[in-house]
Protein backbone atom coordinates (compact mmCIF):
# COMPACT_ATOMS: atom_id res chain seq x y z
CA UNK A 1 0.00 0.00 0.00
CA UNK A 2 1.13 3.60 -0.46
CA UNK A 3 2.79 5.09 2.60
CA UNK A 4 2.28 8.69 3.72
CA UNK A 5 5.65 9.98 2.45
CA UNK A 6 5.19 8.53 -1.04
CA UNK A 7 1.61 9.88 -1.10
CA UNK A 8 2.82 13.38 -0.21
CA UNK A 9 5.47 13.27 -2.96
CA UNK A 10 2.98 11.86 -5.44
CA UNK A 11 0.46 14.60 -4.68
CA UNK A 12 3.14 17.27 -5.01
CA UNK A 13 4.05 15.91 -8.48
CA UNK A 14 0.35 15.86 -9.41
CA UNK A 15 -0.09 19.45 -8.18
CA UNK A 16 2.70 20.60 -10.52
CA UNK A 17 1.24 18.64 -13.43
CA UNK A 18 4.36 16.44 -13.56
CA UNK A 19 2.74 13.15 -14.59
CA UNK A 20 6.14 11.59 -15.45
CA UNK A 21 7.48 12.11 -11.95
CA UNK A 22 4.23 10.90 -10.43
CA UNK A 23 4.43 7.74 -12.52
CA UNK A 24 8.05 7.12 -11.52
CA UNK A 25 7.10 7.50 -7.84
CA UNK A 26 4.31 4.94 -8.26
CA UNK A 27 6.62 2.62 -10.16
CA UNK A 28 9.15 2.69 -7.31
CA UNK A 29 6.61 2.38 -4.47
CA UNK A 30 7.33 -0.82 -2.55
CA UNK A 31 4.57 -3.14 -1.26
CA UNK A 32 2.04 -1.85 -3.78
CA UNK A 33 -0.40 -4.36 -5.21
CA UNK A 34 0.28 -4.57 -8.97
CA UNK A 35 -3.39 -4.11 -9.94
CA UNK A 36 -3.64 -1.04 -7.76
CA UNK A 37 -0.33 0.30 -9.15
CA UNK A 38 -1.64 0.10 -12.70
CA UNK A 39 -4.93 1.78 -11.69
CA UNK A 40 -3.03 4.64 -10.01
CA UNK A 41 -0.63 5.00 -12.93
CA UNK A 42 -3.63 5.16 -15.27
CA UNK A 43 -5.06 7.99 -13.18
CA UNK A 44 -1.91 10.14 -13.19
CA UNK A 45 -1.48 9.56 -16.95
CA UNK A 46 -5.09 10.52 -17.58
CA UNK A 47 -4.27 14.18 -18.34
CA UNK A 48 -7.02 15.45 -16.07
CA UNK A 49 -6.69 18.56 -13.89
CA UNK A 50 -4.54 18.20 -10.75
CA UNK A 51 -7.70 18.61 -8.65
CA UNK A 52 -9.52 15.76 -10.40
CA UNK A 53 -6.46 13.51 -10.38
CA UNK A 54 -5.93 13.98 -6.64
CA UNK A 55 -9.60 13.24 -5.99
CA UNK A 56 -9.54 10.14 -8.23
CA UNK A 57 -6.43 8.89 -6.44
CA UNK A 58 -8.25 9.35 -3.12
CA UNK A 59 -11.29 7.44 -4.40
CA UNK A 60 -9.15 4.57 -5.74
CA UNK A 61 -7.24 4.29 -2.47
CA UNK A 62 -10.45 4.58 -0.42
CA UNK A 63 -11.98 1.73 -2.45
CA UNK A 64 -9.16 -0.64 -1.56
CA UNK A 65 -9.24 0.32 2.14
CA UNK A 66 -6.01 2.35 2.23
CA UNK A 67 -4.98 4.10 5.44
CA UNK A 68 -7.41 6.91 6.35
CA UNK A 69 -4.61 9.51 6.53
CA UNK A 70 -3.43 8.68 3.01
CA UNK A 71 -6.94 9.01 1.57
CA UNK A 72 -7.44 12.20 3.58
CA UNK A 73 -4.30 13.76 2.07
CA UNK A 74 -5.54 13.08 -1.46
CA UNK A 75 -8.91 14.71 -0.78
CA UNK A 76 -7.26 17.61 1.05
CA UNK A 77 -4.93 18.22 -1.90
CA UNK A 78 -7.88 17.97 -4.33
CA UNK A 79 -9.78 20.59 -2.35
CA UNK A 80 -6.93 23.11 -2.28
CA UNK A 81 -6.03 22.44 -5.93
CA UNK A 82 -9.58 23.36 -6.89
CA UNK A 83 -11.41 26.66 -6.46
CA UNK A 84 -13.77 25.95 -3.55
CA UNK A 85 -11.28 27.12 -0.92
CA UNK A 86 -11.89 30.71 -2.03
CA UNK A 87 -15.53 30.50 -0.80
CA UNK A 88 -14.36 29.07 2.48
CA UNK A 89 -11.88 31.90 2.96
CA UNK A 90 -14.80 34.24 3.67
CA UNK A 91 -15.98 32.10 6.57
CA UNK A 92 -14.95 33.68 9.93
CA UNK A 93 -14.53 30.30 11.61
CA UNK A 94 -12.29 29.02 8.87
CA UNK A 95 -10.28 32.26 8.98
CA UNK A 96 -9.84 31.72 12.73
CA UNK A 97 -8.89 28.08 12.15
CA UNK A 98 -6.23 29.01 9.59
CA UNK A 99 -4.83 31.80 11.71
CA UNK A 100 -4.68 29.59 14.80
CA UNK A 101 -1.04 28.58 14.46
CA UNK A 102 0.00 28.59 18.11
CA UNK A 103 -3.35 28.53 19.94
CA UNK A 104 -5.07 25.47 21.37
CA UNK A 105 -5.09 22.35 19.22
CA UNK A 106 -8.02 22.50 16.84
CA UNK A 107 -8.86 19.46 14.76
CA UNK A 108 -11.74 20.07 12.34
CA UNK A 109 -13.19 18.90 9.06
CA UNK A 110 -13.19 22.14 7.03
CA UNK A 111 -16.58 21.38 5.49
CA UNK A 112 -18.06 21.86 8.98
CA UNK A 113 -17.28 25.60 8.88
CA UNK A 114 -20.01 26.58 6.41
CA UNK A 115 -22.46 24.37 8.34
CA UNK A 116 -21.59 26.05 11.65
CA UNK A 117 -21.89 29.47 10.10
CA UNK A 118 -25.22 28.70 8.42
CA UNK A 119 -26.82 27.57 11.66
CA UNK A 120 -25.01 29.59 14.29
CA UNK A 121 -24.44 33.00 12.75
CA UNK A 122 -27.69 34.37 14.19
CA UNK A 123 -26.39 33.85 17.74
CA UNK A 124 -23.24 35.94 17.26
CA UNK A 125 -22.81 39.02 19.43
CA UNK A 126 -25.75 38.00 21.60
CA UNK A 127 -25.95 36.92 25.26
CA UNK A 128 -26.46 33.26 24.38
CA UNK A 129 -25.53 30.15 26.32
CA UNK A 130 -23.34 27.70 24.45
CA UNK A 131 -22.35 24.21 25.55
CA UNK A 132 -19.60 22.25 23.83
CA UNK A 133 -19.45 18.59 24.79
CA UNK A 134 -15.94 17.31 24.10
CA UNK A 135 -13.35 19.92 24.95
CA UNK A 136 -10.01 18.17 24.49
CA UNK A 137 -7.52 21.01 25.14
CA UNK A 138 -9.97 23.86 24.68
CA UNK A 139 -9.18 24.85 21.09
CA UNK A 140 -12.87 24.63 20.21
CA UNK A 141 -13.96 26.66 23.24
CA UNK A 142 -11.52 29.44 22.30
CA UNK A 143 -12.86 29.44 18.75
CA UNK A 144 -16.47 29.66 19.97
CA UNK A 145 -15.60 32.54 22.31
CA UNK A 146 -14.11 34.46 19.42
CA UNK A 147 -17.06 33.62 17.17
CA UNK A 148 -19.96 34.25 19.55
CA UNK A 149 -18.39 37.27 21.24
CA UNK A 150 -17.95 38.47 24.82
CA UNK A 151 -21.63 38.38 25.78
CA UNK A 152 -21.96 34.64 25.22
CA UNK A 153 -21.62 32.21 28.12
CA UNK A 154 -19.43 29.36 26.88
CA UNK A 155 -19.33 26.13 28.86
CA UNK A 156 -17.46 22.91 28.14
CA UNK A 157 -18.03 19.33 29.27
CA UNK A 158 -15.59 16.46 29.06
CA UNK A 159 -14.95 13.11 30.67
CA UNK A 160 -11.21 13.72 30.84
CA UNK A 161 -9.70 15.77 33.65
CA UNK A 162 -6.92 16.89 31.32
CA UNK A 163 -9.52 18.96 29.46
CA UNK A 164 -10.43 20.82 32.65
CA UNK A 165 -6.75 21.34 33.54
CA UNK A 166 -5.88 22.62 30.07
CA UNK A 167 -8.64 25.21 30.17
CA UNK A 168 -8.50 26.17 33.86
CA UNK A 169 -8.89 29.90 34.42
CA UNK A 170 -10.14 30.44 30.89
CA UNK A 171 -13.31 28.36 30.63
CA UNK A 172 -15.78 26.54 32.82
CA UNK A 173 -15.42 22.85 32.02
CA UNK A 174 -17.62 20.36 33.85
CA UNK A 175 -16.35 16.80 34.20
CA UNK A 176 -18.69 13.93 33.45
CA UNK A 177 -19.89 11.35 30.99
CA UNK A 178 -22.22 12.50 28.23
CA UNK A 179 -23.93 9.12 28.18
CA UNK A 180 -25.15 9.82 31.72
CA UNK A 181 -28.48 11.72 31.54
CA UNK A 182 -28.10 12.89 35.16
CA UNK A 183 -24.79 14.61 34.27
CA UNK A 184 -26.38 16.29 31.27
CA UNK A 185 -29.34 17.49 33.34
CA UNK A 186 -26.90 18.91 35.91
CA UNK A 187 -25.18 20.85 33.12
CA UNK A 188 -28.54 22.30 32.16
CA UNK A 189 -29.43 23.19 35.75
CA UNK A 190 -26.06 24.83 36.48
CA UNK A 191 -25.41 26.62 33.22
CA UNK A 192 -28.52 26.34 31.01
CA UNK A 193 -30.89 26.63 29.42
CA UNK A 194 -28.60 26.54 26.43
CA UNK A 195 -29.23 28.13 23.05
CA UNK A 196 -26.55 26.13 21.32
CA UNK A 197 -25.33 22.62 22.14
CA UNK A 198 -22.44 21.22 20.12
CA UNK A 199 -21.80 17.52 20.59
CA UNK A 200 -18.16 16.85 19.75
CA UNK A 201 -17.60 14.30 22.49
CA UNK A 202 -16.94 10.59 22.25
CA UNK A 203 -19.10 10.06 19.11
CA UNK A 204 -20.40 6.60 20.06
CA UNK A 205 -24.01 5.79 19.24
CA UNK A 206 -25.08 5.70 22.87
CA UNK A 207 -23.34 9.00 23.68
CA UNK A 208 -24.90 10.82 20.73
CA UNK A 209 -28.40 9.41 21.22
CA UNK A 210 -28.53 9.93 25.00
CA UNK A 211 -27.19 13.46 24.60
CA UNK A 212 -29.79 14.36 21.98
CA UNK A 213 -32.63 12.72 23.93
CA UNK A 214 -31.67 14.44 27.16
CA UNK A 215 -30.56 17.89 26.03
CA UNK A 216 -32.77 18.68 23.04
CA UNK A 217 -35.92 18.99 25.21
CA UNK A 218 -34.02 21.39 27.50
CA UNK A 219 -32.64 23.72 24.83
CA UNK A 220 -34.17 27.18 24.56
CA UNK A 221 -36.87 27.80 22.00
CA UNK A 222 -35.09 28.90 18.83
CA UNK A 223 -31.90 27.09 19.82
CA UNK A 224 -29.98 24.33 18.05
CA UNK A 225 -28.36 21.02 18.78
CA UNK A 226 -25.47 20.28 16.43
CA UNK A 227 -24.06 16.76 16.47
CA UNK A 228 -20.64 16.32 14.91
CA UNK A 229 -18.82 13.36 13.39
CA UNK A 230 -21.97 11.39 12.74
CA UNK A 231 -19.97 9.35 10.21
CA UNK A 232 -19.32 7.11 13.22
CA UNK A 233 -22.84 5.83 12.50
CA UNK A 234 -21.15 3.82 9.74
CA UNK A 235 -18.22 2.56 11.80
CA UNK A 236 -18.60 -0.68 13.78
CA UNK A 237 -15.93 0.43 16.28
CA UNK A 238 -18.35 3.14 17.44
CA UNK A 239 -21.43 0.90 17.41
CA UNK A 240 -22.45 1.92 13.91
CA UNK A 241 -22.76 0.10 10.57
CA UNK A 242 -24.56 0.68 7.28
CA UNK A 243 -28.28 0.81 8.14
CA UNK A 244 -27.53 -0.34 11.71
CA UNK A 245 -30.65 -0.29 13.86
CA UNK A 246 -28.95 1.33 16.85
CA UNK A 247 -26.96 3.94 14.96
CA UNK A 248 -27.38 7.64 15.64
CA UNK A 249 -28.18 8.30 12.00
CA UNK A 250 -30.94 5.66 12.04
CA UNK A 251 -32.29 7.18 15.27
CA UNK A 252 -32.14 10.69 13.80
CA UNK A 253 -33.90 9.72 10.58
CA UNK A 254 -36.79 8.36 12.68
CA UNK A 255 -37.33 11.92 13.90
CA UNK A 256 -38.59 12.67 10.39
CA UNK A 257 -41.75 10.78 11.41
CA UNK A 258 -42.02 13.11 14.41
CA UNK A 259 -41.81 16.13 12.13
CA UNK A 260 -44.81 14.71 10.25
CA UNK A 261 -46.62 13.26 13.26
CA UNK A 262 -49.92 15.01 12.66
CA UNK A 263 -50.28 13.43 9.25
CA UNK A 264 -50.65 9.81 10.39
CA UNK A 265 -52.84 8.57 13.19
CA UNK A 266 -50.34 5.94 14.32
CA UNK A 267 -47.62 8.51 14.99
CA UNK A 268 -47.14 9.96 18.46
CA UNK A 269 -48.15 13.61 18.46
CA UNK A 270 -47.35 14.18 22.10
CA UNK A 271 -43.56 13.83 22.19
CA UNK A 272 -41.21 16.79 22.43
CA UNK A 273 -39.92 15.83 18.97
CA UNK A 274 -43.41 16.09 17.47
CA UNK A 275 -44.03 19.47 19.06
CA UNK A 276 -40.69 21.23 19.44
CA UNK A 277 -38.56 20.02 16.55
CA UNK A 278 -38.71 22.70 13.87
CA UNK A 279 -36.50 20.93 11.38
CA UNK A 280 -33.43 18.78 10.89
CA UNK A 281 -30.51 19.27 8.60
CA UNK A 282 -28.45 16.28 7.53
CA UNK A 283 -24.94 16.90 6.23
CA UNK A 284 -21.92 14.75 5.64
CA UNK A 285 -20.96 13.91 9.25
CA UNK A 286 -23.16 16.54 10.92
CA UNK A 287 -26.82 16.64 11.96
CA UNK A 288 -28.44 19.87 13.16
CA UNK A 289 -31.73 19.89 15.08
CA UNK A 290 -33.71 23.16 15.32
CA UNK A 291 -35.67 23.71 18.50
CA UNK A 292 -38.88 25.52 17.66
CA UNK A 293 -42.29 25.64 19.32
CA UNK A 294 -44.47 24.44 16.47
CA UNK A 295 -48.09 25.12 15.78
CA UNK A 296 -50.12 22.43 14.06
CA UNK A 297 -49.78 22.89 10.36
CA UNK A 298 -52.82 23.63 8.22
CA UNK A 299 -53.46 24.55 4.65
CA UNK A 300 -55.22 27.61 3.35
CA UNK A 301 -56.22 28.96 -0.02
CA UNK A 302 -55.40 32.50 -1.12
CA UNK A 303 -55.82 34.11 -4.49
CA UNK A 304 -58.44 33.08 -7.08
CA UNK A 305 -61.62 35.08 -7.53
CA UNK A 306 -63.33 34.35 -4.22
CA UNK A 307 -62.21 37.78 -2.98
CA UNK A 308 -64.92 39.34 -5.17
CA UNK A 309 -67.71 37.98 -3.02
CA UNK A 310 -67.23 35.18 -0.56
CA UNK A 311 -64.24 36.47 1.35
CA UNK A 312 -65.75 39.86 1.97
CA UNK A 313 -68.99 38.38 3.22
CA UNK A 314 -67.35 35.78 5.41
CA UNK A 315 -64.86 38.32 6.71
CA UNK A 316 -67.65 40.68 7.75
CA UNK A 317 -69.63 37.90 9.39
CA UNK A 318 -66.55 36.69 11.21
CA UNK A 319 -65.71 40.18 12.48
CA UNK A 320 -69.28 40.86 13.57
CA UNK A 321 -69.73 37.58 15.38
CA UNK A 322 -66.32 37.85 17.04
CA UNK A 323 -67.24 41.33 18.33
CA UNK A 324 -70.60 40.10 19.57
CA UNK A 325 -69.05 37.09 21.29
CA UNK A 326 -66.42 39.32 22.90
CA UNK A 327 -69.08 41.71 24.23
CA UNK A 328 -71.16 38.88 25.73
CA UNK A 329 -68.04 37.34 27.26
CA UNK A 330 -67.06 40.64 28.91
CA UNK A 331 -70.55 41.07 30.35
CA UNK A 332 -70.47 37.49 31.55
CA UNK A 333 -67.16 38.06 33.34
CA UNK A 334 -68.60 41.09 35.16
CA UNK A 335 -71.76 39.24 36.21
CA UNK A 336 -69.78 36.18 37.24
CA UNK A 337 -67.53 38.28 39.46
CA UNK A 338 -70.57 40.02 40.97
CA UNK A 339 -72.31 36.75 41.75
CA UNK A 340 -69.12 35.27 43.28
CA UNK A 341 -68.72 38.35 45.47
CA UNK A 342 -72.33 38.11 46.60
CA UNK A 343 -71.97 34.42 47.29
CA UNK A 344 -68.90 35.10 49.46
CA UNK A 345 -70.73 37.84 51.35
CA UNK A 346 -73.62 35.49 51.94
CA UNK A 347 -71.27 32.80 53.25
CA UNK A 348 -69.57 35.32 55.59
CA UNK A 349 -72.94 36.51 56.89
CA UNK A 350 -73.90 32.90 57.68
CA UNK A 351 -70.57 32.18 59.47
CA UNK A 352 -70.62 35.43 61.45
CA UNK A 353 -73.95 34.53 63.09
CA UNK A 354 -74.09 30.76 63.28
CA UNK A 355 -77.60 29.43 63.11
CA UNK A 356 -78.90 32.70 61.70
CA UNK A 357 -80.53 32.65 58.31
CA UNK A 358 -78.43 34.15 55.54
CA UNK A 359 -79.11 37.76 54.70
CA UNK A 360 -82.35 37.70 52.60
CA UNK A 361 -81.41 40.91 50.72
CA UNK A 362 -78.08 39.48 49.69
CA UNK A 363 -79.73 36.21 48.79
CA UNK A 364 -82.15 37.99 46.52
CA UNK A 365 -79.34 39.89 44.80
CA UNK A 366 -77.44 36.67 44.37
CA UNK A 367 -80.41 34.97 42.76
CA UNK A 368 -80.73 37.90 40.37
CA UNK A 369 -77.02 37.77 39.48
CA UNK A 370 -77.23 34.02 38.88
CA UNK A 371 -80.23 34.46 36.62
CA UNK A 372 -78.37 37.18 34.71
CA UNK A 373 -75.36 34.90 34.36
CA UNK A 374 -77.35 32.00 32.97
CA UNK A 375 -79.13 34.36 30.61
CA UNK A 376 -75.80 35.64 29.29
CA UNK A 377 -74.48 32.09 28.96
CA UNK A 378 -77.40 31.12 26.79
CA UNK A 379 -76.91 34.31 24.72
CA UNK A 380 -73.29 33.36 24.24
CA UNK A 381 -74.34 29.92 23.10
CA UNK A 382 -76.89 31.23 20.65
CA UNK A 383 -74.38 33.81 19.31
CA UNK A 384 -71.97 30.99 18.64
CA UNK A 385 -74.69 28.92 17.00
CA UNK A 386 -75.69 31.84 14.79
CA UNK A 387 -72.08 32.41 13.78
CA UNK A 388 -71.75 28.76 12.79
CA UNK A 389 -74.97 28.95 10.75
CA UNK A 390 -73.77 32.09 8.97
CA UNK A 391 -70.41 30.45 8.26
CA UNK A 392 -72.24 27.47 6.75
CA UNK A 393 -74.21 29.85 4.57
CA UNK A 394 -70.95 31.40 3.39
CA UNK A 395 -69.66 27.91 2.59
CA UNK A 396 -72.66 27.32 0.36
CA UNK A 397 -72.01 30.65 -1.39
CA UNK A 398 -68.34 29.80 -1.84
CA UNK A 399 -69.19 26.38 -3.28
CA UNK A 400 -71.62 27.95 -5.73
CA UNK A 401 -69.02 30.47 -6.80
CA UNK A 402 -66.43 27.73 -7.32
CA UNK A 403 -68.89 25.67 -9.37
CA UNK A 404 -69.67 28.70 -11.55
CA UNK A 405 -65.97 29.38 -12.06
CA UNK A 406 -65.41 25.75 -13.04
CA UNK A 407 -68.27 25.90 -15.57
CA UNK A 408 -66.80 29.08 -17.06
CA UNK A 409 -63.40 27.48 -17.35
CA UNK A 410 -64.82 24.43 -19.10
CA UNK A 411 -66.81 26.62 -21.43
CA UNK A 412 -63.78 28.71 -22.37
CA UNK A 413 -61.83 25.56 -23.11
CA UNK A 414 -64.59 23.92 -25.11
CA UNK A 415 -64.26 23.62 -28.88
CA UNK A 416 -67.56 25.30 -29.72
CA UNK A 417 -66.60 28.34 -27.64
CA UNK A 418 -63.36 28.69 -29.54
CA UNK A 419 -65.01 28.03 -32.92
CA UNK A 420 -67.69 30.65 -32.33
CA UNK A 421 -65.20 33.16 -30.97
CA UNK A 422 -64.87 35.20 -34.26
CA UNK A 423 -68.66 35.32 -34.49
CA UNK A 424 -68.94 36.69 -30.96
CA UNK A 425 -66.24 39.28 -31.74
CA UNK A 426 -68.21 40.50 -34.80
CA UNK A 427 -71.38 40.65 -32.69
CA UNK A 428 -69.57 42.65 -30.05
CA UNK A 429 -68.31 45.12 -32.67
CA UNK A 430 -71.69 45.50 -34.40
CA UNK A 431 -73.57 45.56 -31.13
CA UNK A 432 -75.76 42.64 -32.30
CA UNK A 433 -76.67 39.93 -29.84
C1 LIG B 1 -12.74 15.39 19.35
S1 LIG B 1 -12.32 15.80 20.98
C2 LIG B 1 -13.06 17.36 21.18
C3 LIG B 1 -12.37 18.45 20.43
C4 LIG B 1 -12.86 19.82 20.74
N1 LIG B 1 -14.28 19.94 20.56
C5 LIG B 1 -12.18 20.84 19.85
O1 LIG B 1 -12.82 21.35 18.90
O2 LIG B 1 -11.04 21.15 20.11
C6 LIG B 1 -13.34 14.72 21.87
C7 LIG B 1 -13.38 14.93 23.35
O3 LIG B 1 -14.50 14.23 23.85
C8 LIG B 1 -14.19 13.73 25.12
N2 LIG B 1 -15.07 12.60 25.43
C9 LIG B 1 -14.97 11.32 25.03
N3 LIG B 1 -15.93 10.58 25.56
C10 LIG B 1 -16.69 11.40 26.32
C11 LIG B 1 -17.83 11.21 27.13
N4 LIG B 1 -18.40 10.02 27.27
N5 LIG B 1 -18.36 12.27 27.78
C12 LIG B 1 -17.79 13.49 27.63
N6 LIG B 1 -16.69 13.72 26.88
C13 LIG B 1 -16.14 12.70 26.22
C14 LIG B 1 -12.74 13.35 25.01
O4 LIG B 1 -12.15 13.31 26.28
C15 LIG B 1 -12.18 14.44 24.12
O5 LIG B 1 -11.62 15.47 24.87
From TrEMBL:
An example of a Pfam family matching this protein is Methyltransf_24
Going by the entry's taxonomy, the superkingdom of the source organism is recorded as: Bacteria
Q: Which GO biological-process labels does this protein carry? A: methylation
Xref: InterPro entries: SAM-dependent_MTases_sf
- Supply the name of the protein: Class I SAM-dependent methyltransferase
GO-annotated molecular function: methyltransferase activity
Which UniProt keywords are listed?
Coiled coil, Methyltransferase, Transferase
Which residues lie in coiled coils?
Answer: 325-414
Q: Which organism is it from?
A: Cellulomonas wangleii
Q: Does the keyword Ubl conjugation apply?
A: no
Amino acid sequence: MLDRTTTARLLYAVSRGDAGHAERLLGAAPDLDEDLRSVLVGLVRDGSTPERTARALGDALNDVGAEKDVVNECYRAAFYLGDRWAELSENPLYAYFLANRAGGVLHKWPHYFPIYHRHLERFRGRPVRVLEIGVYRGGGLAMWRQYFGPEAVIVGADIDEAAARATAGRFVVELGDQSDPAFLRRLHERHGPFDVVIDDGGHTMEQQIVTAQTLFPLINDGGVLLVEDTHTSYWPAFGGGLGAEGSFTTWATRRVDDLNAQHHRDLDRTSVWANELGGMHFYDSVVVFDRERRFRSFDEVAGGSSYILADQVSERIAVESAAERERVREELAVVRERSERLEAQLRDAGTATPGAAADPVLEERLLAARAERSDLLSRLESTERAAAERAAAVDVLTDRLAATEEKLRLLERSVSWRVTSPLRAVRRRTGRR
